[in-house]
Amino acid sequence: MKHDHTSPCGEGETRRLKTVCVYCGTGEGADPAYMEAARELGRMLAAEGLGLVYGGGSLGLMGAVANAALEAGGHVTGVIPAFLEEREVMMQEVSELVVTSDMHERKRTMFERADGFVALPGGIGTLEEVVEMLTWGQLGQHCKPVVLADIGGFWRPLVDLLAHMRGEGFIRAGFEVDYRVANSIAEVLPALRRPAGAGEGATEAGVADLEKL
Question: Where is coiled-coil annotated (predicted)?
Answer without folding.
Answer: none
